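Thread: Newbie trying to understand structure tokens

Hi all, I'm a second-year student working on a class project, and my supervisor (Dr. K.) asked me to get a predicted structure for one chain before our next meeting. I've only ever worked with sequences, so writing a 3D structure as a token string is new to me. If someone could post the tokens and maybe explain what I'm looking at, I'd be very grateful. Here's the chain:
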Amino acid sequence: MALRCVALVVATAVSTSCAVLEKREEEKRRAAVRAEALAAHATWRAKAGWRAKTYKNEEILAKATAENAAVEISLSDQRGLLLVDTAIAMDFPVATGKASHPTPAGKFQVLGKQKDYSSNLYGKILDATGTVLIPDADTRTDVPPEGAMFAGAKMPFWMRLTDTGVGMHVGYVPGRPASHGCIRLRREAATQLFELLKIGTPVVVADRAPALAAGVRKTR
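---
Reply by user tm_fold:
Sure, no problem. This is what the structure looks like when written as tokens:
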């Protein structure tokens, strides 16, 4: 009986040791992938005209799943990053909130998704003939006159981040802050993110994306 116990303890110890070694090897492999992806991204950003373009690392993108994806938004340079297992897979232009309606910084997650969505806060007020009376209406301060109606701004591929109406969606991206607080995306990036991200996907909004400020690191 004693010999069996000893054998069991030894076998357990060996199994645990192997598991630890395997975990360390996997961490080294992932670190190498992240470093390689970061270097490839830095090379791309060193080229002229990168700010108007979208970067894609197809090898990393091929490994993307709803479970290993995360997003970082960099307010200072108006860019978004898609991370796959913390490696940079995409770098795309965004337009965040202008000075009067800044996009809040912090750690968020996707709370909801809706392909066809219209704002219940911002839009236009139209008269009965469809003529625009107020082009940049806010339902909290602008009341439609009799016979007029409010038409919410269209926000296709909506991905909600806060209960106060901040989210990511298709919109005009002029290379500078321009929204009422949301994160506008070009259609290509928005559709790709919409298809990939799930409810609960982490989204970090910061002056500078953590993946660029201090190297790629986990955001979960």
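A couple of things are worth pointing out once you decode it. The first helix runs from residue 2 to 45. The two ends are 46 Å apart (CA to CA). Feel free to ask follow-ups in this thread.
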